[in-house]
């Protein structure tokens, strides 16, 4: 924060916002994406109001690099589309214009109002306190108060490069405080995802959550039941794939929100089987954070494999104890946990299928005889499954020597590998001769080939 300290005494209100002129705040155009500036200037040229708003302004003031840039304007989405050729309108619940510049998208939102007394009223639809449609347009002052947190409601005006604060956001930003605008309970009822956003920003910025904003987090988690499962998936990726997932996990559990998103995982964690603390989730999330911080790629398939493993594992244990073969138990347990989870958080198939493969491959790491380890090595999901095995070993779930064997096996030369398999095959039972069924064709398939192929 670089504004002069005498601003602290000034406060803002909906009618008289605090306006910080250009020389008194630290936002420099040099730190704003060239494409966001293009959008702002172009709207201004067409005589529309244009402001940078939300995370971009907040993060610039804090000296962080913004993830993306959001623009607010009095132009309607259709008018925005007429200004930019590279523009697409998206969203039904909240209609927005996306202006595309290669891979960068600048999100342009029209000022929202409450729509009361205007013909726009039907554009704002509230059901049981929840906003299901929010497309009634309004003034910048109305728009500011409809945003979630005070620190997210700061506007950088391209007209004169001033900063506009309707909600005392600057004071909160300075104090490291996260505060909802308006009555917190009502704001969470309107959109329960704001509870998850509170946790996200508290972790991301290291801010404290102001008391009235925090209290309902312990009480209103059940409202998440009313949020579409697909939206929760998107929100969870933002929560867990930003480099502070372990902190998010702990905070979500603290508020009882994790139990509502992952009830089966919470139950498994709570029971901490055999008094043995369950640590795979923590370790997995910490590893994911380290990867993200190092700029390495991560996938939701692995993330959800971590988050849902505990209930899968406890089911497998039970099924195997009841006499079910391990491979069958893994498949059945995975199917059961996935089916129950999908009603809460919709994991798209392109992630849930590889997630299940990561689990399904786990028992195959135990099989180190003959051609099996070579086949496993060529499996497209080998690397992710191996990383998962390492996690299980770290958590004390499987023998460390097994994980080490696979680490060596991957790096070994062809000859060394052959030696390792012989070594690892000591426990191999002598292969029983298959009696050919009378009348069966000669040269049947080699044992195991079918299963390897089936798994790919
Ligand atoms: P980041 O992009 O760093 O995740 P952000 O604050 O920019 O954080 P976005 O989801 O990009 O978050 O939203 C942009 C802005 O839109 C927010 O800063 C906030 O002003 C407003 N906003 C987003 N979601 C909501 C919501 N559910 N309720 C009210 N306002 C919201
Ligand atoms: Mg943003």
Structure description:
The structure is a single chain. The chain is an alpha+beta fold. It folds into 2 domains: 9-174, Beta Polymerase, domain 2; 264-427, cca-adding enzyme, domain 2 (Orthogonal Bundle), CATH 1.10.3090.10. It contains 21 helices and 12 strands. The strands form 3 sheets. It has an 8-stranded mixed sheet. Helix 13 packs antiparallel against helix 14. The protein is elongated, with a radius of gyration of 27 Å. Bound molecules: adenosine-5'-triphosphate and magnesium ion (MG). Adenosine-5'-triphosphate binds at residues 54-55, 67-68, 70, 147-148, 152-153, 191, 193-194.
How would you briefly describe this protein structure?
Helices cover 46% and strands 11% of the residues.
Which secondary structure elements does this structure contain, and how are they paired or packed?
Blueprint: E1 18-20, H1 34-45, E2 50-53, H2 55-61, E3 70-73, H3 77-83, E4 87-90, E5 96-101, E6 104-110, E7 124-127, E8 130-134, H4 140-145, E9 154-157, E10 163-165, H5 169-175, E11 177-178, H6 184-190, H7 193-205, E12 208-209, H8 211-214, H9 229-240, H10 245-254, H11 258-261, H12 263-271, H13 280-293, H14 300-321, H15 326-342, H16 349-360, H17 372-377, H18 382-394, H19 400-411, H20 414-424, H21 449-455
Parallel strand pairs: 3-6, 11-12
Antiparallel strand pairs: 1-10, 2-3, 2-9, 4-5, 5-6, 7-8, 9-10
Q: Nearest-angstrom radius of gyration? A: 27 Å
Termini separation comes to 53 Å
Average pLDDT metric: 88
Number of strands: 12
**Largest sheet at a glance?**
8 strands, mixed
Relative strand content: 5-15%
Specify the CATH homologous superfamily of the largest domain: Beta Polymerase, domain 2
What name is given to the CATH topology of the largest domain? Beta Polymerase, domain 2
Number of structural domains: 2
CATH class of the largest domain: Alpha Beta
Count of runs of 4 or more consecutive helical residues: 21
Strand order of the largest sheet: 1-10-9-2-3-6-5-4
List the uncertain runs. Answer: 1-9, 424-428, 439-456
